[in-house]
Design brief:
The protein is 96% helix and 0% strand.
Length: 54
């Protein structure tokens, strides 16, 4: 009986871990996309504004 209960607990822990990893990956990808958008926007803006700064 203990083995079955242990296996069930392990499966639950694995599922919780997978859910945490999935959420972390989703947040990381969103952050990277935001950074990429910011870089792309800054680069486009920077091309015109750099001429005036020199």
């Amino acid at each position: 009986m203990d083995r079955k209960n242990t296996h069930n607990n392990q499966s639950k822990k694995d599922a919780e871990r997978d859910a945490r990893l999935k959420a972390a990956l989703k947040a990381n990808m969103a952050r990277r996309k935001e950074q990429a958008r910011a870089r792309a926007g800054h680069k486009a803006d920077g091309d015109t504004s750099e001429e005036g700064q020199n």
